[in-house]
Design goal:
single chain; alpha+beta; Catalase HpII,  Chain A, domain 1; 8 helices; binds protoporphyrin IX containing FE
Length: about 375
């Protein structure tokens, strides 16, 4: 594909619908309610999504040399090595018998350049990925999903396990027949595979310097490729146990790739529920994530990553600003979730929230 075939970034690629502001307000209000009820139930402030940490890692992002112009953009402008912190998570704060989407949050340290948000004083670039290619279309669709999140808080795991069982049957039927099913069933129908063998996606679009992209990370080293589709759900905390056992003996590498937007019809920005077809927007390699052998969970590391750190797609370079409705709503949603949990945890003996300056800030 020549560079000419990719859509160039311009602020006009974003089309904000009038009803979006109201949807964002409703979502933030709902997150405030769920935050108050989880605080009430657990006695401490937690993330309102992906609260369950299942591995805390340090490593490096190695940006490949000689990338063609359409890929050497923003963070990937030139060959570089960046220290990174990774927090692995499951979307639901429940037993791993309830199979839920997996999260891979990356904090790239020591990144220079103009920031997307004026009040962002950090020198870090956060990348948040989940093991599904697409997500709810936009803020309006997410508002309904958030209502279900709120209703689901009081339901026992058994209900989620049963809904999961039915959802997986529907996902399999949809994969077989090509008949589309609602995104929520894809999430509830997650296979519950080994988190380290999964491919992770930003699901929504990001500015990519002069262009626009969705990013993904794909298992590269044999150590993680052989874990792909391996079941990991027959116990309450099997995901964390599998990650800790893996990194005690192994290192892991993932390839970071970009799919560049070609046009808003086939590779939409304002509708995150549509996969970008790989024949139209082939994934192209940018660099690799290298995670050495290490202790993937320890009390100081867990306390730091779960309580002191936060990951936010809007903590980024201007060159990688999140784009599209589902990405815009995250600006307020993440800020609300983290501000509330940090306030709730103020009186507990926890270090105040901070952005790490160097990898040494991350406890062993
Ligand atoms: C578009 C695709 C999305 C992806 C790939 C994604 C991914 C993630 C990941 C990986 C985390 C865990 C971060 C960590 O480890 O600290 C997270 C946290 C979170 N997500 Fe999302 N998410 C998406 C959309 C959304 C949307 C649309 C909302 C709500 C409007 C949302 C609300 C949250 C919240 C509230 C947190 C916890 C933030 C905190 O307290 O620090 N996410 N998400």
């Amino acid at each position: 594909m020549s560079a000419g075939q990719y859509l160039r970034y311009d602020p006009s690629v974003e089309q904000i619908r009038p009803e979006e502001a109201e949807a964002v307000e409703a979502i933030v209000a709902s997150i405030a309610r769920t935050s108050a009820s989880t605080f009430h139930k657990d006695g401490h402030g937690t993330r309102q999504q992906h609260a369950k940490g299942v591995g805390y890692l340090r490593g490096e992002l190695i940006v490949y040399d000689d990338l063609p112009n359409h890929l050497s953009q923003g963070l990937f402008k030139k060959a570089s090595r960046y220290p990174i912190i990774v927090r692995l998570s499951t979307a639901f704060n429940r037993s791993d018998r309830v199979r839920s989407p997996r999260g891979f949050a990356i904090k790239v340290l020591g990144v220079t350049g103009p920031r997307a948000l004026d009040d962002d004083t950090s020198t870090n670039q956060d990348l948040l990925l989940v093991n599904h290619k697409s997500y709810f279309a936009d803020a309006m669709a997410y508002r309904d999903a958030q209502r279900n999140v709120e209703r689901g808080l009081v339901l026992p795991d058994l209900v989620f396990e049963s809904v999961g069982f039915v959802s997986r049957i529907l996902v399999a039927a949809s994969d077989r027949t090509g008949i589309p099913i609602p995104i929520v069933l894809k999430a509830l129908g997650d296979a519950g595979s080994n988190i380290l063998g999964e491919t992770f996606h930003t699901e929504g679009a990001l500015r990519f310097g002069d262009y626009i992209a969705r990013l993904r990370i794909v298992p590269l080293s044999d150590s993680v490729r052989r874990l792909t589709s391996q079941p990991c759900h027959d116990g309450d905390d099997v995901v964390l146990k599998s990650v800790v056992a893996f990194f005690k003996e192994n290192s892991a590498e993932y390839e970071l790739c970009a799919q560049l937007c070609t046009d808003v019809k086939r590779t939409p920005i304002e509708n995150a529920s549509i996969d970008w077809p790989e024949d139209v927007a082939p994934p192209e390699a940018l660099g690799k994530i290298v995670l050495p052998r290490q202790t993937a969970d320890s009390p100081p590391r867990r306390a730091y990553a779960d309580e002191v750190l936060s990951f936010d797609p809007w903590r980024c370079l201007a060159a990688h600003q999140p784009l599209g409705s589902i990405m815009r709503v995250r600006r307020d949603a993440y800020r609300a979730s983290r501000t509330l949990r940090q306030q709730q945890n103020q009186n507990r003996a926890i270090r105040p929230p901070e952005e790490p300056q160097q990898i040494e800030d991350f406890p062993d």
